[in-house]
């Protein structure tokens, strides 16, 4: 029969002309030489299909859907054919249904509403007396059912669990797995039938039943309790396979059904975890499996691997553990990379249980870090990371550092991060800590993360007796500098702070190699960095600040420093230009306050920093978790949650927003401070007017401004979030920012322009203070909205508007509703965006009680202004507009993202529309 | 749980893609592209496992075809590797010495085999024999009902009678009449499908 069909199958041409056959279409597509040609063929075929669908062509419907599936596989849109699948499923014949269900699974998924329409057909087919048709329906249900369908069809599926056909039973069991995944409330309903299936003879049914039991136990304590009573049954299943002889049907390389064995072992693991009694019952068979299974084939190793995991997880006796660890040792020595991989993978889990056993394999594991296969390397690195303790950190770090020099590019960032965190965690002394970091930073490439640099600086700042040593070591490292940003930044910071120790051999440690550096050598280092094309503007900003600091530490190089700062006055980077101008002004005109301004930073508080950092990362993690669902490309592979879940996250997000809204309030007060700051202006003007030279009185005024300014500067950041410490007033760098208003005092000029120039300075101030001092930046999650200070100034057109026209975006379009977004960028603050939303009703009936809601991920802040109305006239007869203010705290790194929910009433009925907007223009 | 299964050739053309989690089409294409990039250049000596986003991909290469399964991070890699092999054996048996073209032209059958092998992202049947028998049964069922349906819908002269006979014989599992009869019936069936 099979042969006959095969013999006749290909090569026979169709006798009647009824459109192209599937096979001809595939041939035509394959014959295409270019993508354009292929598009042409597909377009033609799609047009034909559309016509056929329109004419409701019954005879060829299943062939058409088959073609559609092929087109879908090629990646072309096929939405127009979804309804055809439903029609095929509803038809009577088996071939139609078969293609119909196939198309349903391929072209649709659980999120489409169309799927609901198929529920009834599914119900009929599940009850169909033909086992093939019932099988098709179970298969479709198991692969794509949604929560609603699961609820509706659970009774049918449960009934089929008792069917006398094993083919149906196994499919029904797996279908139940999907159903309880979607609707956990149904667990209780399925528990008894699932346990009943464990006594089945058929392997297919058993494997499905064991899986179902596992799924139930994972989600319900009651089911787990019931399962613990069934351990004997599971042991028996396993025993049958282990002791029974050759079973041809299920044999894989001499082992009876490894898949079922693995499944059972896995369930035993879950049941035995934390339960001594059941662990006891299963230990015999586990020992038997571990000793009797041959490990020379993949299938055998798969079982051993699973068995080891189970032994390690349950409350096993010592002897069994030893057996498992020995198996792992054998695995680790295996030549096959796959086996070594799983060995490493398991050892990572074992390390917390039995560190001693794993330590024995340390050398092998360190060797694995150097393997050429990235998968092995990753696992091994993780394991090494888990193995390190205070006693072996020096040796292991040395190994890793050596390996860092030769490792692949893409592996370096991982490795660097791991080394840094190991050093941070286990460093026995500070000197070693700093040394290792310098070594890591001195490696070519920019793999050291910014947080690591910040932590390092905090540590350096705290190690008072090592300041001299550190700056000299960094100076040495900088002699071989080849563009590493991290090294440059830390070195510049230290040279700026502790420059004099470089020259005068202060705090020299015993045994330290003496180093003779002149003032101009130190400035040379900075010059190299500032003039190097590889330095980012951030590094250059560090360099400028270091120069300013050195200007008061070194007396002989003042002119050189001035010359180095000067060229950046014309820099295209605002930040650099600003620093250059301000620092230039300080150097040239304000020698009397310079000393105070560039004093050494007070010792940074390590404890606060560490706790803030922990807070910050904690929050960042939480935010990640929250983001997972709404953001595209998050954990997309996770089980597509039921709708309920998404609305929950939506609400969560809304709540979050509500929490964050108070953030906006303090801005006003910040603005107030600013205003009072400005209020001083006329006074100072008059002072300047009478005494052109900066006298004592204006100095007082200056101090007034500074004292006013400091709280203003610190209110804004500290009010926006508590993540980072408020700038201590003693901090000379933070002071720098506020000191800038000094500027307007010197040049004589009319009142009006002077005022604007003051504003000008203020306008950019917060940004200066943001970067001038590392201290300010210490929090890892520094919200970049310090610019909120500016909000009070928004109305004054200081900077020429940088708004560029962003295109209008259609945020949501459904059959009855269209939402358009227009964007305006307020000048001066790149992070904020004003979105003008307009809603248009496309349906013939008017909408009432129209409410628009939006939710955004954590890095965005959202403020909805009241809408212009709540009634939307029919057929586009009117528009509701609403203003949305969005602040993107990660401007430049992430683009905007928003979830929408619109609630309204049509003819007295509530309607809800939801959608996600991710087509925001770039640069918002 | 298996998140998706891909069958790609060396050029990155997807020959089969089965997703057990709902994804946007654009996301699917991106995944397929990324998975192909991940596996295509790996040394044969390397492990058959690659970490992929928050999951891992178990892949195996057969001639120019890559079979990849994306599974949870805690799943037994070796077992899935073995299941890929079993799937390939089934395909090989069903198409008797399978090649890429078989999979292209009979893509719908490949999906059906897969549906007999894996359901809801879990292994359903581990016996090669059971699946092959099942597939043959399904084929026969389809063939039979297609002919019957055709007969009922458009009886073209005497051929319809012969088709009927043919269909009956098929249903009974008897050998077929003459070659002439066969080819005509087959023509009709082919043009219909």
TrEMBL record, chain A:
One of its GO terms (cellular component) is Golgi apparatus. GO terms for biological process: intracellular protein transport. InterPro entries: Adaptor_Complx_Large_Subunit, AP1_complex_gsu, ARM-like, ARM-type_fold, Clathrin/coatomer_adapt-like_N, Clathrin_a/b/g-adaptin_app_Ig, Clathrin_app_Ig-like_sf, GAE_dom. It is found in: Cytoplasmic vesicle membrane; Golgi apparatus. SMART domains: Alpha_adaptinC2. It comes from the Eukaryota. Its main location: membrane. Residues 804-921 form the GAE domain. Keywords: Cytoplasmic vesicle, Golgi apparatus, Membrane, Protein transport, Transport. Belongs to the adaptor complexes large subunit family. PANTHER family: ADAPTIN, ALPHA/GAMMA/EPSILON (PTHR22780). This is AP-1 complex subunit gamma. It comes from Riccia fluitans.
Automatic annotation (TrEMBL), chain B:
GO terms for biological process: endocytosis; protein transport. Residues 1-141 form the AP complex mu/sigma subunit domain. GO terms for cellular component: bounding membrane of organelle; clathrin-coated pit; cytoplasmic vesicle; plasma membrane protein complex. This is AP-2 complex subunit sigma. Pfam families: Clat_adaptor_s. Belongs to the adaptor complexes small subunit family. It is a peripheral membrane protein. SUPFAM superfamilies: SNARE-like. Keywords: Cell membrane, Coated pit, Endocytosis, Membrane, Protein transport, Transport. It is found in: Cell membrane; Membrane, Coated pit. PANTHER family: ADAPTOR COMPLEXES SMALL SUBUNIT FAMILY (PTHR11753). InterPro entries: AP_complex_ssu, AP_mu_sigma_su, APS2, Longin-like_dom_sf. Its main location: membrane.
